[in-house]
Design brief:
Blueprint (H helix, E strand, L loop, with lengths): L4 H12 L6 E5 L11 H7 L15 E4 L10 E4 L18 H14 L3 E5 L1 H16 L6 H20 L5 E2 L4 E7 L5 E7 L16 H4 L2 E2 L7 H10 L21 H8 L7 E5 L4 E5 L22 E6 L4 E5 L5 E12 L8 E6 L7 E7 L9 E10 L6 E6 L2 E12 L1
Helix pairs in contact: 1-3, 1-7, 2-3, 4-5, 4-8
C-alpha cells in the first residue's frame, strides 16, 4: 500500500471479496533530495494515534508493525479519523511520510494489519545503480528493477514470513493461465484493459514463479472506475493526485541525484553536431539522455536533440530530430515470460513506458554468443532509443518478455 488511490482500492476490493488482507508500506528513507521525507517523518506517520475510525469497517484498528520490522513486538493502535495527508507542492512521487499516513489510515478503515517495512538499505542500492547507469551514459528505468527486485523479490520474503499466499498490488495489468507442454498451468502476463494506464511494461522482469502468487485487482478497471470505488468506500484518497515521477526524483531533477552520488561523472566536454561541428560545451553527460531537447544550450537555427553520449571522450552529440531515429537495437539481460524462441519472431516492442509498441522482428542471439541477448529490427524507424531503457516484447496483449537496450543499430 503506497498511500495512493490504486493500492488503497486494491486492498479494499480484496477485503470485500473475503481475503485476509495485510497492508504493507515500503519505507524507502530519505534519498539525496530535499522533497523526500526524512526517517523521522516516516516514523511519525507510523506512530500510535488516538480515537478509533469508522469508515469501511466498524471500530477498526490497525496493527502498527513499524516497530516489529526493527525487532520489537507489534502493537495494535487505534487510528484517528483523517483525510488524506496534505501534499507538499514539491512532492509528486510516492512513498513519502504523507503517503505512509494515507496508507495507514486506509488500513485502519478496513481493520487490517498494517506493516511499515524498512527497505532503505535495499532501495539505496537501487539508487546507486541508477546513478551508475547515468554515469556511464545510459538512461536507466529504476521502476522495472524496483518491481522485480524489491516489490516482487525482497517483499516476497516478508510475505513468506507472515504466511501470505499472494502479493497484491495496484498495478494496472492482468494475469491469465495457460497450460504448457507438460500440462502445467503457467501464468500469462497481459496488458490492462485500460490501455492508457497499462503498467505491464514495468513488470516484464517478474519471474513466473512470483507471478503465480500475484494478484492485480485493478487489471480490468479504468482509472475512473477505481476512483468511483474509492468514493463509494469513503476513502479520503479518492481524489489524490497520481504520482508522475520516479519516486526518489519527484522534481524530475535526475542530475541532482546522480551528482550527489557520483559527482566524478560530471566532467565538462564538447557538444558536437552530427555533421561534425563543435557547437559548445556541456557541464556533464549525466544531465542528458537520447532525444532530449531541453537543456542543450547552444545557438542553432533549428531545434536540436541529443542523439548520443560518448563517455570515453565526454562528447555530447546533437542533431535534428530525424538524427535520433533508429531502425534496430540490441538488448541483453533478456527475461522471457513465455518460451524462449529458437529463431526470429514477430512481435510489438516498446522502448520506453510512454512509447507506442511498434511492430518488429526479434532475433535471439546464437547460443555461442549469448543466450540472453536479442536483436530487434523495427518495420519503421523509432525515435529516441536510449541505451539503458527496457525494451519489452508483446504478442497482442501478452507480455512475451523484455531486456535492457545496449545500443541502437543501423
Amino acid at each position: 500500500m503506497s498511500g495512493g488511490v490504486d493500492s488503497s482500492v486494491a486492498a479494499c476490493l480484496l477485503h470485500e471479496q473475503g481475503h485476509d488482507v495485510v497492508g504493507v508500506f515500503m519505507r524507502l528513507g530519505s534519498h539525496d533530495h530535499p522533497s523526500q521525507g526524512s526517517d523521522s517523518a516516516h516514523d511519525a506517520a507510523a506512530a500510535p494515534a488516538a480515537n478509533p475510525v469508522d469508515a469501511c469497517a466498524k471500530d477498526a484498528c490497525a496493527v502498527d508493525r513499524s516497530d516489529e520490522a526493527r525487532g520489537a513486538a507489534p502493537r495494535t493502535v487505534p487510528l484517528p479519523v483523517q483525510s488524506a495527508a496534505p501534499r507538499g507542492d514539491r512532492h509528486r512521487g510516492c512513498c513519502s511520510a504523507e503517503d505512509a499516513t494515507d496508507a495507514r489510515v486506509v488500513a485502519g478503515s478496513l481493520g487490517i494489519p498494517f506493516y511499515a517495512l524498512n527497505f532503505e538499505k535495499d532501495f539505496s542500492k537501487l539508487i546507486d545503480r541508477f546513478a551508475d547507469e547515468y554515469a556511464v551514459g545510459r538512461t536507466p528505468n529504476p521502476c522495472v528493477l524496483c518491481n522485480s527486485w524489491l516489490k516482487f523479490g525482497k517483499l516476497r520474503n516478508y510475505a513468506d514470513a507472515v504466511g501470505a499466499e499472494y502479493i497484491a498490488t495496484g498495478h494496472y495489468a492482468r494475469l491469465d493461465w495457460r497450460e504448457d507442454g507438460a500440462g502445467m498451468a503457467r501464468p500469462i502476463l497481459r496488458t490492462a484493459r485500460h490501455t492508457e494506464k497499462d503498467q505491464s511494461y514495468f513488470l516484464f522482469g517478474v519471474s513466473p514463479r512470483m507471478l503465480r502468487r500475484t494478484l492485480f485487482p485493478l487489471g480490468d478497471l479504468t482509472k475512473e472506475q477505481v476512483r468511483a470505488h474509492a468514493r463509494r468506500l469513503g476513502l479520503a484518497v479518492h481524489d489524490k493526485a497520481e504520482s508522475q515521477d520516479i519516486c526518489f526524483v519527484p522534481d524530475r531533477d535526475y542530475a541532482a541525484v546522480v551528482r550527489a552520488r557520483r559527482p566524478e561523472a560530471f566532467v565538462p566536454g564538447e557538444i558536437r553536431h552530427v555533421d561534425g561541428r563543435v557547437l559548445g560545451r556541456h557541464d556533464g553527460l549525466p544531465q542528458f539522455t537520447v532525444g532530449q531537447r531541453r537543456g542543450v544550450r547552444v545557438a542553432e537555427g533549428a531545434p536540436i536533440y541529443v542523439t548520443g553520449l560518448d563517455t570515453s571522450t565526454g562528447t555530447l552529440t546533437v542533431g535534428p530530430r530525424e538524427a535520433a531515429l533508429t531502425i534496430a537495437l540490441r538488448a541483453s539481460g533478456v527475461h522471457w515470460l513465455t518460451d524462449r524462441p529458437t529463431g526470429p519472431i514477430r512481435a510489438h516492442v516498446r522502448v520506453r513506458y510512454n512509447h507506442a509498441a511498434a511492430p518488429a522482428t526479434i532475433t535471439p542471439s546464437a547460443a555461442r554468443e549469448s543466450t540472453d541477448a536479442v536483436t530487434v529490427r523495427f518495420d519503421e524507424p523509432q525515435w529516441a532509443v536510449a541505451p539503458g531503457q527496457a525494451a519489452v516484447f508483446y504478442g497482442g496483449d501478452v507480455v512475451l518478455g523484455g531486456g535492457w537496450i545496449d545500443s541502437p543499430l543501423s
